[in-house]
Design brief:
Order of helices and strands of chain A: HHHH
Helix content of chain A: over 70%
Shape of chain A: flat
Low-confidence stretches of chain A: none
Structural class of chain A: mainly alpha
Shape of chain B: globular
Order of helices and strands of chain B: HHHHHHHHHHH
Radius of gyration of chain B: 20 Å
Radius of gyration of chain A: 20 Å
Number of strands of chain A: 0
Largest sheet of chain B: none
Strand content of chain B: under 5%
Oligomer: heterodimer
Number of helices of chain B: 11
Number of helices of chain A: 4
Number of domains of chain B: 2
Helix content of chain B: over 70%
Structural class of chain B: mainly alpha
Chain lengths: 100, 241
């Protein structure tokens, strides 16, 4: 149970970079107009970011993952999140078995 | 007594808010467990101690960047490269906290600074979802954030301590759990066909960029493409079928 100086420095640098980004969002927000195009863009942001995060897995991995992603989205319109995650994981396991 | 007396109604509201926060983050917290264990196992292989993992989860608290950093870790730690990798992977947070800031207007400045320290993808998405329907409150945030934070910390440290038990997440489909959860959260923002177009544009651009360019640039590229699509679409309330 030790902490090496080099590892500590790396962790602190990562922490500073990450919190700096989180704070930067707060400061930028004060300068974004609350109506018009900037508002439309910000309103679209949550769905756009979440989709972008999963896109390589959903679209650029294989047919099993792409199909499972489609099933997950359909399930998400009807089921609570935990059931959606279960449906997604189950379908990817089955589809990987079926499609290799 | 069936109905609460008037003086206790504020406490009841607070309790209901805290409960709602806890229940909304619970699925995400559970989905994090296998990833936290895998991250810990990877870190143990790279020679990181449980205490070092505890520090990283406490201070950085951003799963994606922790995975990338542990993957890049060598001895002695290339701190500048690791810091820059964390910067790139977490660059999306600037968009996320900028969006959330508009829903935190009723908090003091230092409170906003504290809240965004704890914002990762999952609890940010839950906070945004909640803010779309009600005002965010401290009880709601306190029902959600400490549990989610300690959950990640505890399982990453445990993973580092027990090492290599979880090596192949794909074998059980666990690698897809985050994908499923983020898709479910994204659908939570569904607001008609417009949202579908935003998601489709974001997905295609992000996938193409992830193939073309090494590194986590695809998140920023996809996010901006989706936002651009929203701006360029006709701004009418009724959407064509």
């Amino acid at each position: 149970m030790t902490v090496s100086l080099a590892n500590l420095l790396a962790i602190l640098t990562m922490a500073a970079a990450t919190y700096g980004i989180r704070l930067a969002g707060l400061f930028i927000a004060g300068h974004i107009p609350q109506s018009g195009r900037a508002r439309v863009a910000l309103d679209a942001l949550p769905a756009a970011v979440l989709t972008a995060v999963v896109a390589p897995m959903a679209l650029a991995t294989g047919p099993a993952e792409t199909l499972a992603a489609a099933i997950t989205i359909l399930a998400a319109f009807r089921l609570p999140i935990l059931a959606v995650v279960a449906a997604g994981v189950l379908s990817v396991v089955l589809l990987r078995l079926l499609l290799g | 007594m069936v109905k609460p007396a008037e003086p206790s109604s504020r406490a009841d509201t607070a309790l209901a808010d805290a409960r709602a926060g806890f229940l909304l983050i619970l699925p995400a917290a559970l989905a994090c467990v296998p990833f936290a264990l895998i991250l810990g196992a990877m870190a143990a292989q790279k020679g990181l101690s449980p205490l070092e993992m505890a520090l990283m989860s406490t201070l950085v608290f951003a799963g994606g960047s922790q995975f990338v950093a542990v993957d890049l870790w060598t001895h002695p730690a290339p701190w500048l490269a690791l810091g820059f990798a964390a910067f790139l992977v977490n660059l999306r947070f600037v968009l996320m906290t900028a969006s959330l800031a508009g829903k935190l207007g009723h908090f003091r400045g230092w409170e906003r600074a504290v809240i965004v320290f704890f914002m990762a993808d999952e609890n940010w998405a839950v906070a945004e979802r909640r803010a779309a329907e009600r005002l965010l409150t401290w009880p709601f945030l306190l029902g959600m954030i400490p549990f989610f934070y300690v959950n990640w910390l505890a399982w990453t440290v445990l993973g580092t301590a027990i090492g290599s038990a979880f090596q192949n997440p794909a074998a059980y489909g666990f690698d897809f759990a985050f994908t499923a959860m983020f898709l479910a959260l994204a659908v939570g923002f569904w607001n008609g066909a417009r949202t579908g177009i935003v998601m489709a544009v974001s997905a295609v651009v992000a996938a193409l960029v992830s193939i073309a360019i090494e590194g986590p640039w695809y998140v920023i590229a996809g996010a901006f493409a989706g936002m651009a699509a929203a701006v360029l679409m006709p701004q009418t309330e009724t959407t064509p079928a």
